[in-house]
Amino acid sequence: MKIALMDSGIGLLAAAAATRRLRPDADLLLSSDPDGMPWGPRTPVDLTERARAVARAAAELRPDALIVACNTASVHSLATLRADLEPGIPVIGTVPAIKPAAAAGGRVAIWATPATTGSPYQRGLIRDFAAGARVTEVPCPGLADAVEYGDEEAIARTVAAAAELTPADVTDVVLGCTHYELVDDAIRTALAARTGGTRLRFHGSAEAVAVQALRRIGAEPAPELPRTGTLTVLHSGRPSTLPPAALGYREGRLLSGSDQGATVGR
């Protein structure tokens, strides 16, 4: 079993680690685009071409499924990637977990990149899945870049700024960018101070997309299996290894089998 994941950078680590935990026997292929990142500021057409190149590089190694572990790429490029690769390779997109957050019945904050915040795509999800709920969209400028480079000072600063924009009575927080799941502990700490220690519910997408990828290829979670799966890394189509910043997060260390690296926000 081989499952590929793609993103502009290390945002794919959360979904890759979730896949590794669910199926330790699965071979994982991580295809990212350091030559073209960040994708967020690009036009939809330009972004889609970068995403297609990253997807094609992964497809050449014949994975059983491809997870688009990037909210921005899923917004702009998912239909194109599916047209390119399916039905031969199932393509699984990443959607912010707005529906389960709203179903909890509290006040919802959606943390996302400035490009996604207020976008027709996100507003459509709110309309379709959170009608009647109190929802606040929280832009997080600079947070994804800070996470990508493991910049602790910038992570702390951008998380604090987003926390200030989050209502003090929030009950549910949607992490609407895959990078944010790598620093959810830092986000929890900042929001605990903001909300007076209220216990918040956090909604990410990593495990949900991992489960969906297994379902699409007819496999079941089996976390008890021995860890025999391999790890292959492509950087803009070139064979590579996990970047040093990845080892600053426990997801990266899990994937590498290493305990090295300083913990950044985790």
UniProtKB/TrEMBL annotation:
SUPFAM superfamilies noted in UniProt: Aspartate/glutamate racemase
TM helices/strands, residue ranges: none
Keyword Lyase: no
Pfam families membership: Asp_Glu_race (PF01177)
Keywords from the UniProt entry: Isomerase
Domain of life, per lineage: Bacteria
Name of the protein this chain belongs to: Aspartate/glutamate racemase family protein
